[in-house]
Amino acid sequence: MHLTRTITLTASILAAGLGFFVFLQFGASDGFDSLDLIRALLIFASTFWLAWGAFTALLGLTSRPPVRERSTGLLRAMTAILVPVYNEDPVATFARIAAMDASLRATGAGDRFHFAILSDTRNDEVAARERIWFLRLLADTHGEGRIFYRRRTQNKGRKAGNIEDFIKRAGAAYEFAIILDADSLMEGATMVEMVRRMEADPELGLLQTLPNIIRAKSRFGRTMQFAGAFYSPVFARGLAMMQGRTGPFWGHNAIVRVKAFAQSCGLPELSGRPPFGGHILSHDYVEAALLARAGWTVRVDDDLAGSYEEAPENIIDHAKRDRRWCQGNLQHARLIFAPGLKGWSRFVFVQGILAYIAPVFWLAFLAASIAAPLFAPPIDYFPIDYWPFPVLPVSQVSKALLLALGVGGLLFLPKLLILLDAVLRRRTRGFGGSIRALQSTLTELLFSSITAPIFLMFQTRSVLQVLRGADGGWPAQTRGDGTLSFRDSWAASHWIVTTGAVVLAFAQWLSPQLVPWLLPVALPMVLAPALISWSSRPSRTMLFTTPTEQQLPAIMSLNDRILSRWSADLPDQTAAA
Amino acid sequence: MMEVINPDQFDLDHLAEELGKLPEAPLAMPVQDLEHNAPLGGMLAALRPRLFRLRKAGH
Questions:
Q1: Which residues of chain A neighbour B44 with C-beta distances below 8 Å?
Q2: A364 with A35: CB under 8 angstroms?
């Protein structure tokens, strides 16, 4: 494991170093200046991040999950399934709980699990609906004494505080707790298997599953769903190879040993004011680091199927969520040197920070490239004294192309290799066959390339907002299905259009030769509102088919049946009210 | 859906609270130390500029 980490780290640094030197040669061809060095350093940092992702994927492709012995005996432990809710639609959330309860009972181990709905809902009207639908949930599942509901009067510590409150009040009643999100869905058999793995390894403090995105309907949502189902297992495998006993926690669809969690994961409020002080926002990474610090194993088992979650249906909702994650990850800068943490945990914090800083580096690189001619010395056609003929500068286009190809390779090659691997191992069957998987991959590459500059801008803004301690304002209103009108998209992204236009104008003025190179970045920025609105509309293509679309998992069918029955009763309930 | 002013609301709220009550099984969850005693953190703190930190008069 240490060797794997060392090789991956070394390879990433070498790739970044190569990018650094190629750029230095390219940039210094017209005379070396400080801006060349800054740009080369920015290339180093950005390339390192890309290379790290690419080598993680390569690791995932060249390894397989360990074969784990499956036990079928009776479960000994009691497990609480925690469902923290915060102003969510109770009908949809509680229908998922009813489905998971039925799925668990079908395994024969239902009596070893309790559900706890942990409401942090601030809206009294939503809270009133939660209580009504909780009673309906109890009646439907005969869940009295197995399904609990409590609402906090103050949501101190947000989600982490919500879980902590449960543990302090009822934690001693359970050996394990499965932590879910309001939109999580898990097969009963998966939850039983998670408990078995925890029982089999007394040193295992936390076991994370890889949740599959489901129920995406929009163009953007289905692209993300495809990418999650097709690429993520390989990246997760690579991550699992490197993590050893210091694995990740992504905040939900995971099981914890309650005693271990209680002993080691009580989070302090950080000194100082937000965004860097106060409550720890991205608590999951910190909890994983604290469990590892206390000597517990934290592991992601990428072979566990039957774990699902939903995801944003449009770019704006995605960016909103990313804004929170950005603040949470940058706050980890305070914790890199926290006492006693494992080296890998510290590195994970750095990785999280780099994930949000890297786009800023790219943008800074573009800005520096546009401004470079202002600082470059004039070309000297007669550098040799008394030599009568001019010395023309050697074209550096080949080096620029080499660099572009290298960066492109790091971006695209892992995904193309994942496609090749899927074809060879016949994993493409779940994605509509090899031809459709190829079409989906190429379209996803095109879509992610076009939308990358938009995400780059949102991430850069998030980082700058966090650094100056500001909160993000979001004018866009999403409708129930996530569809965004052009007007809403414009309201949320007009500043990206302006930035794109300004970038092109400056490039045309200062470095006209750069304009064709900048078009792939600046054009999507100028077209941002149209792209955001278009991609939020319902997807009707056969592309991006995923296994869960081809064959609905049992838990999803169960959930659909319960939801349609409850939805049919909605008018009656409203009338009764 | 149910309005907050509905007369049955109180009974339903009470019922939900009663039936939803969590098991009474407290477990301690001590707050962890994340900010102190880190050698490098301490070093960085030592390097932090304190040029303008003045003592309050009278203390």
A1: 337
A2: no
Least Cα separation, residue A575 to chain B (angstroms): 8
| End-to-end CA gap in chain A | 60
Q: Do A128 and B1 touch (CB under 8 A)?
A: yes
CB A515 within 8 A of CB A470: no
Instruction: Measure CB to CB from residue B2 to each of A128, A167, A286 and give the nearest one.
Output: A128
Cross-chain Cβ contact B23/A129 below 8 Å = no
CB distance A186 to A100 below 8 Å: yes
H or E segment and range at residue A208: strand A204-208
Q: What share of chain A is helix, strand, coil (3-state, %, to 5)?
A: 65, 10, 30
Q: Where are the alpha helices (DSSP H) in A231-314?
A: 232-243, 258-264, 283-293
Query: Cβ contact (<8 Å) for A135 and B19?
Result: yes
Low-confidence residues in chain A, pLDDT < 50: 472-477, 479, 574-577
CA–CA distance, A49 with A43 (Å, rounded to integer): 10
Predicted ipTM beyond 0.85: no
User: What pLDDT, on a 0 to 100 scale, did the predictor assign at position A244?
Assistant: 81
Per DSSP, helices labelled H in A342-396 are 343-375
A433 burial via Cβ count (<10 Å: 0-12, 13-18, 19+): middle
* Alpha-carbon span A250 to A254, nearest angstrom: 8
What does pTM read for this prediction?
Answer: 0.88
Contact A451, A426 (CB under 8 A): no
CA distance B47 to chain A (A): 15
